Amino acid sequence: MKARKWIIAAGLFAFVFILAMFVAPTALAGETLTGQTVEIKKGETIPDDLYVFADTVLVNGTIQGDLISFSTKVVIGPTGVIEGDLLAAGQTLDIQGVVKDDARVAGAVLTLGDSAQIGDDMMSAGYSLETKSGSQIGGSLTFAGYQALLAGMVEEGLVFAGNSLDLQGEVGGDAYVEVGGAESNMPFNPFTFIPNMPAIPTVPAGLTIGDDASIGGSLVYQAPKEANIPAGAVAGKIEFTQVIEPVKAPEAKKEVREEPVFTLERLMIAVANWGRTLLSHLMSLLIVGLLVAWLYPRLLSGSGETLKIRPWASLGVGVLTGIAFWLLMPVLTVLLFAIVILLGLFSVGGLFFPALVIMILILIVLSLAFLISGSYFSKLIISQVLGQLILGAFKSPAANHRFWPWLLGLVIFILLWSIPFVGWIFNILAVLFGLGAFVLWLFGLRKSSRQAIAEPTAP
Length: 459
Description:
The protein is α/β, with parallel strands linked by helices. The chain is 39% helix and 25% strand.
């Protein structure tokens, strides 16, 4: 089995609703709330769908329609009731109350408290999912991510794709599971240094089934090694497929494998694997974006404005920058090595080693600058512009927020990037337009600084 990346998560199901939510026509019925904290207090009733853009969302009252939220933290309190669907994406989600229909959620840490009730299906993606004892999901549970600790009740089936699953509760139907092994464990919690993150449970690698756990149907699972399943825990059949990372030999012949027979569980796992790749892209861009927006937000806002004002110039500069880098880097490498070799041949004091170190540092810095700009900054700049255009169409004040425009645009970009056969076109265009806008903004910033220095100081 291929080694899993540090963030092993799939977001296909969770992100489809986000696309539909933000590109819906402006005539869509419902109430929209924005701000630092949006709270639906106990006893308060929202008689329609509710759209929320905020840092924190607290629901202790009743929402008679759907709750659609793109927020850092979403909490459905013990008295909170959502009579429709819950569609949410953010950093953390904590459900203690009732969602009478489906829940489609994505986030770093997802928690269902001991009084949480989901009336129908729950489709989710993220780093960690915990359903506590007493929680209840009335339909099926689909989760793609790194780990899950399931101590509550799932009345229908379970589909899990990730590294670690600890089942301590009940599953009423069939369970389709794909897990990793100890070699796929992350060396540390990637959210350790992010403030205000809730406690994340420790889940051992692979599949763990507790003594009191039960599966009402069959268990079909793939893992590096067979799990220790208590007697009577699975009512139906148990189907285990051992997946081992192949050892590559220098002269080993390629093994011809028969095409697997199409089954529903294989389709589900294939979709989850595809989504896992999407979320790995999203998480890496999200982490870089949060750092940039926190430390130097002018990079995104300034480059975004440059792209909107000079789109075709940005495209041209992006193409030229890429060509220049790939043409000049080999020449620069040869030139620097030649200088170092000459210093060694002519025995110029002790300059050989310092020159070699400086040469390597120059090449590393230039390469990192180009790769970070092309792989991360360019896509975040495109996301910033996309988010501002969408939020501006809704006339939302969040269009000028430090975080929300590029967060929203990033989700849309990842979805476009994931389209089979044509998604690579969106990726290349994003790199070229975004990289060019970033370079133009840097030159404009430098020009402004020079003009400020050149201006005479008033006596």
